[in-house]
Amino acid sequence: MSIRLRLTLWYSAIVAFTFIVCGFAVYWFVAQNIYGDLKSKIVAQASQRPFDVNIDFWNGSFELRVGKFISQEFFVQTVNYLNANIQTSANLKPFHFPYPQKNSKAVQAFQHVTVEGAPFLIYNMPLTSNNQVVGLVQIGVLSVKEELLLAKLKNILTGVSILALMIAFSLGLFLARKSLKPIDNVIRAANQIESGTDLSVRIKREGPNDEIGRLVDTVNSMLSRMETFYNELDDAYKTQRRFVSDASHELRTPLTTIRGNVDLLEKMWEPNQLQESRWDEETLKHMSAEAIRDIADEAKRMSRLVNDLLALARADAGFTMEMEQLELKPIVEEVARRAQFLERKAEWITGDFSGLEGIFVNGQKEYLQQMLFIFIENAFKFTPEGSVTMDTVRHGDQIGIRIADTGIGMDREEVPHIFDRFYRADESRGKIAGTGLGLSIAKWIIDEHKGSVEVLTTLGKGTTFIVWLPIASLPALE
To answer: Among 17, 26, 81, 292, which is least packed, fewest CB within 10 Å?
Structure first.
């Protein structure tokens, strides 16, 4: 059974109960008023003694008869229990009231009776002598009008109750349907999502800010979060697939080179091949040395790639660096000193680092150095001629380390993707060796240090990276 039908039945049951109680109350109140008037008239008539009683105390005889002066609207009947004599008033000749037997309790009481199809309200007055019931006087009033009035009232109350119940059921069903319409919308939206993958469906908000409205808002908010989570999960899944594909490709290339050179060395130095070889010993040594150098280079490349993958795996696993307050100037000066020994073709220029005096940052020394070396090596790699410069800038409570080159630069459209894993600009892909993971690692290190990176580039003119780090301790003002 649906909630709508249950609510409607509950509404209808409450309305029916209310009308039944009210109907009984109205009926009882009207009946008490109508019969109260009749009872008052009967009691008033009884006080006028519409009967005669003669008692012979010596003989113990008792005579009871109807009096002569009785109003025509009253009916009187006397019963003598001693001689079984029954007398009635003239207007009661066609009828006989039922009367209790002699052994009944001597109690004055009203009684509703029907005599030959006619309703009466009678008043029983027992007569006693020596604590014994010797006679009975019954005074009655014909209550046809009152019974008809009460019957009509009962029919009216019944009809009104049934009509009200039908109206209540119809209105209850309508109101329940209207009130629960947002829930139907929620169900339809849920079914639509279940049958498809469209999480952009939202439930239209209608009506006041009641419980249903807040439920709709909650479901819409939940759908928004689900859509965001689904999109992030989908993007993560696509990124993972691309990552696995690129990693497989990057690992396959050096492995292929290593395997090819190993096969070449095996063939060159097999005894049968040496006898049939057209090359002299000097040529074989030279070719072997080249193959070994290729193997060593590819092994180094694989080692760097594996180390980079391990660093990114740490980032994905939620690795947290142990931070401490570090003076930034010695770290930058050491990186600048060691950078001059890197393999390069461009001129290495270091600026003035005096602005770093007394500047402290919350960080991890090894990772900060690794991040700076990534940007410097990247600048050397894409600057076949010209210069690479490293200096610092200051803006508010941020300190910036700037690495600028005069190399090949990038298209501005490529900038949002350069920190993606395995991404390399089309201009350099296939021409300049690299794994495409360095900038991804650098970005992770910057994020862990609560910093940011700014990129300025022009195709064919060079690129500038500015790494901004929050200052932990400002230098003392003079």
So the answer is: 17
